[in-house]
TrEMBL record:
KW Ion transport (keyword) present: no
First-tier enzyme category under EC: oxidoreductase
GO molecular function, one term: glycerol-3-phosphate dehydrogenase (quinone) activity
GO cellular component: a single term: glycerol-3-phosphate dehydrogenase (FAD) complex
EC number: 1.1.5.3
GO biological process, one term: anaerobic respiration
Keywords from the named record: 4Fe-4S, Iron, Iron-sulfur, Metal-binding, Oxidoreductase, Repeat
PANTHER family, sorted: ANAEROBIC GLYCEROL-3-PHOSPHATE DEHYDROGENASE SUBUNIT C (PTHR32479:SF19), GLYCOLATE OXIDASE IRON-SULFUR SUBUNIT (PTHR32479)
Residues spanning the signal sequence: none
Domain of life of the native organism: Bacteria
Protein known as: Glycerol-3-phosphate dehydrogenase, anaerobic, C subunit
Domain 4Fe-4S ferredoxin-type: 13-42, 58-87
InterPro entries: 4Fe4S_Fe-S-bd, 4Fe4S_Fe_S_CS, Cys_rich_dom, G3P_DH_GlpC_su, Helical_ferredxn
């Protein structure tokens, strides 16, 4: 597949099949978390289907770059208009001839992980220094207070090479695990606990060498690079076996494979279709097992009341909130649904100097909810959302798989 197809698709197709279904009911406006907190974004209806009719390859309203791509508008639209997808495609066209260097750099997530891991303690200490962060803000446009990932001294690949054989013998078949960039370099503990839970359930877990899904590039309008990455990733995952279920604890990256690569970038490739059909979010997979009567529920009690926030990327996949259903099975756990539309981070959106305050304003109701229910602990399925909630609330925020792992008595 030609990599330039992504931008060509955005320039010509732009979700036209759904565009004229818009009846200007403004329901999308009432669900938009960004336009509710800033006048810089004029709202999904105007920037999306209304403006698209007049673009002809050029943006008529540059406020569309303030769309966070959370997808709330698409989910809310009763007419099925793909508003967020329209905005994402239009933004790629708008930025094609003046792509900021910052947006190119912050979308290189694998490179960031590879650079920080060997010097993790130094990198983490350096990123906590306000003078250095101020310089980075002035030079690169990344806000001095934006949440930053914590580097690990060991990658998930390094852990897999050194670990002992699983304690539980594989009796239920083989799965492939996709950890994503963050799960490979920054949120390594989430990947480890996910693999250990799957092995505890009796599965052999294969973790092939794998690259980036391209989501950060896609969200910044770099469609061609993102297309290359997502198709290379599909090859990586397919190398482990063509008929195996693929499991991931990275909700946003799973969404890229299931939805965004095709719906926003127009990637129409048999490899993506194959992987997108076989991949499951880990909590979605556990719920499927439970509904089939195949999930052991011998959970140990955990006395905990805490907020659970379902990320935007998870909602866009149409799976509901499987984590809430699984957490209900653990004695003593009371998961309080956040009720928040979005945490505000939207991948790299909330890192940018001009968007940081907007992202914090969007996330404030969620931060307040966490502080009200349990200021020490909260749960969320995607990595950047966890970084945002940790920063905004001060709580320890982990993937729900942490509680499943603990309830099974795993160490």
């Amino acid at each position: 597949m030609n990599a330039s197809h992504g931008l060509e698709f955005a320039q010509t197709e732009v979700a036209r099949a759904s565009l004229d279904h818009c009846v200007k009911c403004t329901i999308c406006e009432t669900h938009c978390p960004v336009s509710a907190v800033t006048p810089k974004f004029t709202g999904p209806k105007f920037v999306g289907p209304q403006a698209e009719r007049f673009r002809h390859g050029e943006s008529v309203d540059h406020s569309l770059d303030y769309c966070s791509s959370c997808g709330a508008c698409t989910l809310a639209c009763p007419q099925g208009v793909k508003i967020a997808e329209i905005n994402g495609q239009a933004r790629a066209v708008m930025k094609a001839d003046h792509m900021p260097l910052r947006d190119q750099l912050i979308s290189q997530t694998t490179l960031m992980g590879m650079a920080m891991t060997p010097v993790a303690p130094v990198a983490n200490a350096a990123l906590s220094l306000k003078p250095l962060r101020t310089v980075i803000e002035k030079v690169m446009g990344i806000h001095r207070d934006a949440p930053m990932p914590k580097a690990n001294t060991q990658t998930i690949t390094g852990w897999l090479k050194k670990r002992q054989n699983p304690a539980t013998k594989a009796t239920r078949g083989t799965l492939v695990f996709f950890h994503g960039c963050a799960g490979g370099y920054f949120e390594v503990e989430t990947s480890k606990k996910s693999i250990e839970v799957l092995e505890h359930l009796g599965y052999e877990v294969l973790v092939p060498k794998q690259g980036c899904c391209g989501l950060a590039q896609q969200s910044n309008g770099l469609f061609d690079g993102a297309t290359d990455k997502v198709l290379k990733l599909c090859d990586d995952l397919r190398s482990a076996g063509r008929d195996l279920t693929i499991i991931s604890s990275s909700g946003s990256c799973t969404g890229m494979l299931k939805h965004e690569a095709h719906e926003i970038m127009g990637v129409d490739d048999s490899r993506l279709k194959d992987v997108g059909t076989r991949i499951r979010d880990i909590m979605e997979f556990l719920l499927e097992l439970y509904e089939a009567g195949e999930l052991p529920t011998d959970f140990k009690p955990i006395e905990l009341t805490a907020v659970y926030h379902a990320p935007c990327q998870l909602k866009s996949q149409g799976m509901g909130q499987p984590a809430m259903e699984i957490l209900k099975l653990i004695p003593g756990v009371e998961a309080v649904e956040s009720g928040a539309t979005c945490c505000g981070i939207a991948g790299t959106y909330g890192l940018k100097k001009e968007k940081y305050e907007i992202a914090q304003a969007v996330g404030k109701p969620l931060f307040d909810k966490v502080k009200e229910v349990n200021p020490e602990y909260a749960m969320c399925d995607t990595e950047t959302c966890r970084w945002q909630i940790r920063k905004g609330s001060g709580a320890q925020v982990e993937h729900p798989i942490f509680l499943v792992h603990q309830a099974y008595g795993l160490r």
